[in-house]
Write a structure and sequence with these properties.
Shape: globular
CATH superfamily: dinb family like domain
Structural class: mainly alpha
Low-confidence stretches: 1-6, 201-206
Strand content: under 5%
Helix content: 55-70%
CATH topology: Four Helix Bundle (Hemerythrin (Met), subunit A)
CATH class: Mainly Alpha
Distance between the termini: 36 Å
Number of helices: 9
Number of domains: 1
Largest sheet: 2 strands, antiparallel
Length: about 210
């Protein structure tokens, strides 16, 4: 992995954000209404719980961080999937969030998370990772496939490797899963986050 993969400019970061947001919206539209109670590989979470987490932090969270606003308390317990058009609402919110980060000022300085202040670039990078990795979670649980470019995959891998210990500290990641050294970048990102990239819908049903 090159230095540029780990430290892209904000224009490149925004391009990764737009790509992963579009893919997240596509996967959301493919979630069948009758699969929301299905299990996932995320312990204790069914598809509904996983989708609600994904929607909250990758659309509402992304937009609020760009605008330097805290997430309203009522959003943290909201069942977005209870709305018949939740997937379209999610896609619209993602577009708004990506548009908010088109402002160069959104990338400057730090964002106050309440318990700590974190550089805006790091926040955006971690949310891009959430779009892709949780997008894969949702896709895997609903018989879909996540597709990201090699460039975005290498970026996500860099974010996972950089922040992996922090995520594991708060049980966001499990222990790494072994994969071949020459595995595709996104497979290595999944494995480094404690996910088995070979997982299939069939495996979840066993």
């Amino acid at each position: 992995m090159t230095h540029d993969d780990l430290n892209p400019g904000t224009d490149e970061l925004h391009a990764h954000m737009a790509e992963c947001a579009a893919e997240a919206a596509r996967i959301a539209r493919g979630v069948p209404a009758d699969r929301l109670s299905d299990p996932t590989h995320c312990p204790g979470w069914d598809v509904r719980a996983l989708v609600n987490h994904w929607v909250l932090y990758t659309s509402h969270g992304l937009e609020h961080r760009a605008l330097r606003k805290q997430l309203p308390e009522e959003l943290t317990s909201r069942d977005f999937t209870a709305e018949p058009d939740w997937a379209e609402a999610y896609a619209d919110r993602l577009q708004r969030a990506v548009a908010a980060w088109a402002d160069p000022a959104a990338w400057e300085g730090e964002i106050d998370l309440g318990m700590a202040k974190v550089p805006a670039v790091d926040i955006a990078s971690m949310v891009i990772k959430e779009m892709a990795v949780h997008g894969w979670d949702v896709a895997t649980a609903t018989g879909q496939e996540l597709r990201v470019s090699p460039e975005a995959a290498r970026f996500v891998l860099g974010v996972v490797e950089k922040h992996g210990d922090l995520y594991r500290q708060y049980d966001g990641f499990a222990d790494p899963v072994p994969v071949p050294e020459d595995a595709p970048a996104f497979d290595r990102a999944l494995a480094a986050s404690g996910r088995d990239p070979r997982l299939s819908r069939t495996a979840l049903d066993r």
